Amino acid sequence: MKRSNMGANRRRRRLITFLWTTLLAVGTIVLIYKEMSALLYILATVGVTALLVVVGMADLGPADKSTSGAESS
Fold first, then answer.
1. How many domains would you assign to the chain?
2. Same domain for 4 and 19?
3. How far is CA 73 from CA 3, 13, 61, in A?
4. What pTM value is reported for the model?
5. Domain region containing 13
6. What is the pLDDT along the chain (73 residues), one digit of tens a residue?
7. Where are the beta strands (DSSP E) in the chain?
């Protein structure tokens, strides 16, 4: 892959991340303004649950191999 393509991909990913962050922040502010705390509580609970599932499903196999090598030396 050319360097110019890598730079363009990095900029595009950064822009998408910025847009998602802005969208979520505006959504949260609107829900707070409209005093929909019950919905915010549900969304926060689902978000934390999703994060825990992602962390729980993470592949930690390579980390186990590197630590077992350090123990034997």
1. 2
2. yes
3. 40, 41, 20
4. 0.62
5. 1-35
6. 677 788 889 999 999 999 999 999 999 999 999 999 999 999 999 999 999 999 999 887 766 555 555 555 5
7. none
